[in-house]
Amino acid sequence: MPNLKRQYFNLINLIVLAIISQFFGCASPQPVSGGPQDRTPPKVLSMTPKNLTRNFKDKKIIIEFDEYFKIQNETKEFSISPELEKAPILKIKKKTLEITLPDTLEKNTTYTLNFGKAIADINESNVIKNLSYVFSTGNEIDSLSLSGKVSNALTGELEKEVTVFILPAERDSLFGKKRPSIYTLTDSSGNFKLNNLRGGTYKVYALKEATGGGDKIYQQTSDEVGFIKEPIDINKNIDSISLKVFKENAPDFRVIERKINTDGIISLTFSQQLKKPSITITEPASVDVGKLVLFNLTNDTAKVWVNDLSFDSIKVAIKDDGKLLQTINLNRAKKDSYTRDVTPVDNTNNSKLNPFQTYTLTFPLPITAADASKITLLDDSIKRTNFVLIKDSTSFLKYKITFPWKIKRSYDLKFAPGAFTGLFNTKNKEFSKKFTLEPTENYGTRALTVQVPDTAKSYIVEFINEKKQAVKSFIISKKTRVVLANFPAGKYFVRVIYDENRNGIWDTGNVKYGIQPEKIWYSPEEQSLRPNWEVENTLIIPLPGN
Hints:
Layout: H1 4-27, E1 44-48, E2 60-65, E3 69-71, H2 74-77, E4 79-81, E5 89-93, E6 96-100, E7 110-114, E8 119-121, E9 132-136, E10 144-152, E11 163-168, E12 183-185, E13 191-197, E14 200-208, E15 224-227, E16 232-234, E17 238-247, E18 255-260, E19 266-270, E20 277-283, H3 285-288, E21 292-295, E22 301-305, E23 313-320, E24 323-331, E25 345-346, E26 352-353, E27 359-362, E28 367-370, E29 375-379, E30 382-384, E31 388-391, E32 398-402, E33 411-415, E34 420-422, E35 426-427, E36 431-437, E37 443-451, E38 458-464, E39 470-476, E40 480-488, E41 493-499, E42 520-522, E43 534-540
Parallel strand pairs: 10-17, 26-36, 37-43
Antiparallel strand pairs: 1-2, 2-6, 3-8, 4-7, 5-6, 7-9, 10-13, 11-12, 11-14, 14-15, 14-16, 15-17, 18-19, 19-22, 20-23, 21-22, 23-24, 25-27, 27-32, 28-34, 29-30, 29-33, 31-32, 33-36, 34-35, 37-40, 38-39, 38-41, 41-42
């Protein structure tokens, strides 16, 4: 006969285990694995008391969501305005958020709880953006609003997820360790709106924080910022506010990065763009002899090659226009060794050579000697010897190869070991380059007769590509003909920088001194280049807008 007593106890044990499993499963919701990715943030089902409650007297606010959620970066994201001496306490209870308020609420005051990006689901951390709760301890709720758009000062692109906030005018400045309590985020179209504002005079800012930021405190060295110069008196709803964010130039020069790379190159990065930079190794002076220096286009980074790496330490002086800016020390260990590579890159694009350019090799270190006999050129598999190897007169990193290249031919350049010799007698390993010549009919030319609004001013006229990158620039101050000659067919545009200080570059703003970036105008007309076409028309630069 079956053991009924044993079966009875087994059944009891199963029931107990099921109850325990159910209890722990409910008590600790876990992320769901498998299935399609969840991209939907939690939704608010109810708020108790209701949002926009007047004559508020409750001690707690309950917000119910449709799924389990978490609070992330509470100290950075959550705020209450006006600020309280004792912050509200946030507590999660299953799918509800319980907010306990202190006993220090002012009478006849509108309070706004701003959650920023603090509320997210458990599974995929999808965030509810710009969630807020508003209540008033009096009969009225502040109802003024401020809205507008945020764009990039240089590119004109609308900026998403930029923090826009206001500060009371009596607050000294943007700089400090106190984050704003009245803020919002721009949407995907760069729009923002601050609601339930109390009348008063405010300073308005936009802050685009660098990756890893998020504290809503302006970090001048890494963040982008925009501002309205004069405080705004909010006594009615205000819209059409335009904020342009920019990366502010560092107020003081300093070397922000210094190192000796594994290939022996000394790399320096500066906090400012320099005008006429120079670098001198002052100690030991012998290391300075024969050194080579290369600055980037904006003169805010430099590479230095020296012939002697046997030093323990060196002193490097950085000057601009003859003025000493800073002297730094660089140390190396006696056991440090360096690995160098003499493999160049060429100026082809997708293995196609621009027919209006000379074939050029750019090396990662200065080349001291070249041996053309160790170079083989195959023209449709036929060996050619009538090419010419030329050292570039403007760059110690470049060599050029000239040859009567022709379309519909395949070229294969083979470089034997030792074809090029760099610093420290470093020789290349075997490498090859293959390419074809693009037809000239794939290129076009566009000329513009540019008319300026004021001949006493200076303007920078730039042809830019679809990525808003300048491909050619002209500095003008009067009616001038500019030409974009023999460029690949495609879409191009024109932007004009109103060069107020006539220094030939676009200058960003300065928050401390209330200086806005130099104004930029984008021509609405596309200046495309059609294959094998030459086009000429007129561009009239307007007066700068507000």
